[in-house]
Write a structure and sequence with these properties.
Blueprint (H helix, E strand, L loop, with lengths): L12 H9 L5 E4 L8 E4 L5 E2 L2 E2 L4 E3 L5 E3 L12 E4 L3 E3 L4 E2 L5 H6 L7 E5 L5 E2 L13 E3 L4 E3 L6
Parallel strand pairs: 7-10, 8-11, 10-12
Antiparallel strand pairs: 1-2, 3-4, 5-6, 8-9, 12-13
Length: about 160
């Protein structure tokens, strides 16, 4: 699962395009309401070509994110990896989001074996972030300069 980028987020379209051309099923999160959990919906290859999201094949969801019009659901139990944006990540895999808890609520529903991968510009990678008990950390954090296997800090 990837995401459709908004303000300042790394665009994962090249990753999604490569995965689709390699035969993987790729999806994005869709919000039916601002209080609902994200629902993974399949990306129809017609929604993208090379390095361009074909927004005319998409429609806005409850968060005004462009999602495929077809809304073909993908079961969360089938997800092997979720690529997650953030305003900042730390070396422990903690994420600073936009404050609505959308990704934390969704990530909490995933099977423990589902990889959680945060992507961030290297300049937004910090040593440590404050956390709350409901925060879900990443297994890996990737930037244009490095990939970090997240570590859990000692209590």
């Amino acid at each position: 699962m990837v995401y459709v980028p908004i303000r300042g987020e790394i665009d994962p379209i090249m990753l999604a395009s490569w995965a689709i051309s390699s035969g993987w099923e790729v999806c994005v999160g869709c919000g039916s309401s601002r209080s609902s959990l994200l629902q993974p919906v399949a990306i129809d290859p017609a929604c993208m070509a090379g390095d361009i999201w074909h927004r005319d094949q998409c429609e806005p969801d409850a968060w005004d994110m462009a999602v495929p019009r077809a809304h073909v659901p993908v079961r969360t139990a089938t997800l092997t990896a979720v690529v997650v944006p953030g305003l900042a990540f730390d070396r422990h895999g903690h994420r600073l989001g936009r404050g609505a808890g959308v990704y934390d609520r969704f990530l909490a529903t995933l099977a423990p074996h589902t990889l959680r991968i945060g992507v961030i510009p290297n300049a937004q990678l910090v040593d440590a972030l404050p956390t709350d008990p409901h925060d879900i950390s990443m297994h890996f954090v990737a930037s244009e300069q490095q990939t970090i296997a997240a570590t859990t800090p000692a209590p």
